Write the structure tokens for this entry.
Amino acid sequence: MLHQISGSIAVAKAIALCRPQVIPCYPITPQTHIVEHLSTLVKSGQLQNCAYENVDSEFSSMSFCIGASAAGARTYTATASQGLLYMMEAVYNASGLALPIVMTLGNRSIGAPINIWNDHSDAMSARDAGWIQLFVESNQQAVDVHIQAFKLAEALSLPVMVNMDGFILTHAITRVDMPDQQQVDEFLPPFVPRQQLDTAAPLSIGAMVGPDAFTEVRYLAHHKQKEALSIIEQQAEEFAEIFGRDSGGLVKSYDAEEAELVIVTMGSVVGTLQELVAELRAQGQSVGILSLRSFRPFPALAICRLLQNAKQLIVFEKSFAVGMGGILASEVHMAVQSHKLQIHSVIGGLGGRTISKKSLHRMIEQAFNGTLAAEVFLDLDEATVEAELQRQQDDQTSGPAAENILRDMGVVSASKTH
Amino acid sequence: MSKCEQDMPTEQKVKFYQTGTFTVGNRLLDEEFRTVQATQERSNSIDSGHRACQGCGQALGARYALDAAMRATDNHIIAANATGCLEVFTTPYPETAWSIPWIHSLFGNAAAVVSGIAARLKAEGDTQTRVVAQGGDGGTTDIGLGCLSGMFDRNDDVLYICYDNGGYMNTGVQRSSATPGGARTATTMPVGEHPGSSFNTGKFLPSIAMAHEIPYVATASVHDLHDLERKVEKAMSFRGSRYIHINVPCPLGWGSEPALTIKLARMGVECGLVPLFEAESGELTASTKIRYQIPVEDYLKLQRRFSHVLKPANSDELEAIRALAQKNIRRFNLR
């Protein structure tokens, strides 16, 4: 049924359709509306047989999920940014213990400087945490992928993190086709845990493992993620059959197969790119988009297959490894190393900076005319950077860079106090 | 006076004093008063073969506490464990000493993990199965305090047991916020001014638990296992959050003879440094009276961690420890 609805409310409704039994919550912008709405759904009885708890921190929240999931509950929570970092020890633990928890990450930058707006730094901080990490382009996909996330998590006995861009998706009111309960029940059977704390069949979970078996246990985690590559595709097909819409498997291609220039990216920026690329293709330019819906497992083969005819790649991402560069770029580089492609790493949209169609257009033009550098920070204000570098060179006690820059811009009036 | 003592005929009470050590052997009691742990039918939460040190107070305390919890729930009990000695010595891969469903997640999250288990039971409408969380003093009073306070605030239906041996013994005896003032640890060596652990303002978790006004708080000691069992059983008769703080001597960290674990546990109580009491909804309801008060020095001198405190140059430290014992006696009504 069609709704004009915010991304967060749509996701909350989709989660409720999945019949979770335990939901701990802790507020952090921009995911808060999801857990707020779930609280109402539980309290009003629209979501039954579900324990919803306000807990004392994100660390507690993920730990609460660990206990609930180990006890056999279908378990859900949501977080973002600093919240993910605060729960990180438990994030690794949940995947290490192979617990099929589903968590939404309303993608947001990481401080300092503190910044509540969207980028993918939080998701990337968990890239080695052993979770399945899925990204969505739209709120329709957010709904569809969350429903698939439970099925995937439970099939593999692994936690799944669904990444949706903070504000851009969570707060955007768009048209969403909400599934009905019957469809969801048909797609998603009741949870049968692979391991469960049960007094009728006692077992110990979380024992210490020494050098004698640690490698094998960790390898199995890697193996499981590789298994997920085929299960994600298979479940996407099952989903399309029942719900009558394709919300993508491992990757989504927008004319990537035959394009000479392919932009590889993840998340909501695909919306802007789609519009731009359609216009450019109409003008005869050979350009396409490859959107990763699965980041973990990393779909290296699927990427390779779709880039058979590409000559140039732009890997566009909303985060980077400081001191190294684009994270997605280096992973794509590894995946296509046999292709002899020219690869540009473009980093943009950090801390919520608008990614304009105009800037993206310029980036594509530069790629075609050979002037796009190997590493680019989209719309970087070089004068501001130069001024701060000069200040640091001139004055050993120049103070915090963030505040200096804001003062230069006239955003804050505070004067240097020392 | 424990419930067991109260129920005994007067002539039998006398037998408690016959051995001269304030202890009484099982065989001196009438059968009905003997410990259930002496029967073959006893519950058995932690099996033999685990890797605890000789004279480990925690191994003893945990087994009696969990066995009592098993009996109180007709074996419908699930346990969560913080990282620490108990976790390590009971689950050396690929073995486990636990005969009940048991989970270890992290150092600081046992209270939240167990709350998650309780939430699942609540969602299922399972009122028969109960849950217990366990941690050492570091996992409880330091790194796990946030999760524990949250659990108390939500009044989740959980019994949390802290085995307090006064330090991070599993990592090699470092100071925790439960380390007694003056005690030597690897991070508070007896050097310089104010040797040993700082006294600070104190972080006595039973009082913090009481401040949350949870249904039941108790302290216990491994020298009086009947009292410990009774407190666990009583805790299981409540719904909501319950907290039991058990003083467990640690030969490794205390520098004491393994054979003296029970004696030291008793002396800690008898000198006033380990108050035994119960509280309900934030109010003190019962205290175990000290029968023969002993000087704190008698207790301290059996532990190498306090050897420097007994030197004349450190009389300030000794005085501060004496003052703490007196304060406990006043505050918890121990005389």
